[in-house]
Amino acid sequence: MSAAGGVFEQRTRTAAGAPATGEEETSVTAQQQPADPAAQVGRVIKSEAEWRAQLSPEEYHVLREAGTERPFTGEYTDTTTEGVYRCRACSAELFRSDTKFESHCGWPSFFTPLAEERVRYVEDLSMGVRRTEVRCARCDSHLGHVFSGEGYDTPTDLRYCINSVSLTLEPASQA
Fold this sequence. Notes:
Elements: E1 7-10, E2 28-29, H1 48-54, H2 57-65, E3 83-87, E4 93-96, E5 100-101, E6 109-110, E7 119-124, E8 131-136, E9 142-148, E10 158-162, E11 167-171
Parallel strand pairs: 1-7
Antiparallel strand pairs: 1-2, 3-4, 3-11, 5-6, 6-10, 7-8, 8-9, 9-10
């Protein structure tokens, strides 16, 4: 994932989205950064019971089990409000509204994160295709996936396809 920079972790995921067990789990750094970029933004670690108590069932499914909300149903799919998008689980600032664009894919799309150390990348081999999962570097919650080379007229040629349920929007008037 050199186009996006940051840390790229190669990890095989099962069809259900859970990490596979065994020796297939490895870590690869795409560019020179600390081994754990999450340390830069204050790591949040909770038990699964704590996450279940904090999150709704849908939020838990997407954020903690790498699920996906149905397309065109999310709260922020068509939102044009200026502000900062935060991780719903830990409130880390992840994306700014000025990087959001209309991709007509059914989920909010951004062309870059607020800062590379705010997200991490995991190779996702589920669904029979190679994709790059995007996770919150602070709490390790699943956000969505990033795609490149799709022809969108953006500065990065990247599309961060993010589940609305993974985010909260702090309008600019409150920021």
